Amino acid sequence: IDSHLLITPSVAGMQAKKEIINMFELAKDNYVKAFKMLMGASGSVNEINNTEDEIDYINTAIAKFLIDLSSVSTQSQEVVIGSYLHVINDIERIGDHATNIIKLYEQMKNDGVEFSQSAKADLNKIYDNVLLMFEVSLDIFENNDKSRLSYLDKLEEMTDNMKEDMSAKHFTRLMNDNCKLELTAYYTTLISNIERVG
């Protein structure tokens, strides 16, 4: 972000929004890549970790730019700047959860364990629901379309319900000897991270 843009606060605000969207896309991509690797797809752990470093760097740069921008902005612009600071904080946390998922992948690979097909099917459902939340959130943010907020709330509620149902189904599989007990920590940690991304 070019600090020279601060001379024109409205232009600086638009540039900050573009950088936030870029940061958002990076976090989304890391979430997708980490989950798919855990499900068995090929990928690069180093690439995901490098992207996480980039997300952290962009987060710091945008935060500094927004703080500088607030000193030359009107009161109404300051409200937007404050909301942007909350947004980048949330995006940075999404990046952290993607990193948590890739760490789970590495641990499971080292332990030589994987989820059952039934567990994978449920995981894909909650993953897809959160992926849809990404799309809706971006549309709301990019186009300031507040009419879709209620739909986003419903998707979030669905994510919460899926998490509860998945936990119950996992313990049913355990009781029926259709799942290994050592997978419980991996499974509950994974669905918790996915729910927090939502």
Give the topology.
Layout: H1 9-38, H2 45-70, H3 75-111, H4 117-143, H5 149-175, H6 184-197
Helix pairs in contact: 1-2, 1-3, 1-4, 2-3, 3-6, 4-5, 4-6, 5-6
Brief digest:
The protein has 6 helices and no strands.
Describe this structure in words.
The chain has 198 residues and is an all-alpha fold. It is 81% helix and 0% strand. The chain has helices at residues 9-38, 45-70, 75-111, 117-143, 149-175, 184-197. Helix 1 (9-38) runs antiparallel to helix 2 (45-70) and helix 5 (149-175) packs antiparallel against helix 6 (184-197). The chain is elongated.
Low-confidence stretches: none
CA radius of gyration is 19 Å
- Strands, total number: 0
What about the largest sheet?
Answer: none
Helix content: over 70%
Ends distance: 28 Å
**Overall body shape:** elongated
Number of helices: 6
Secondary-structure element sequence?
A: HHHHHH
Q: Class by helix and strand content?
A: mainly alpha
* Beta-strand residue percentage: under 5%
- Overall mean pLDDT stands at 91
Tags for this model:
single chain; 198 residues; mainly alpha; elongated
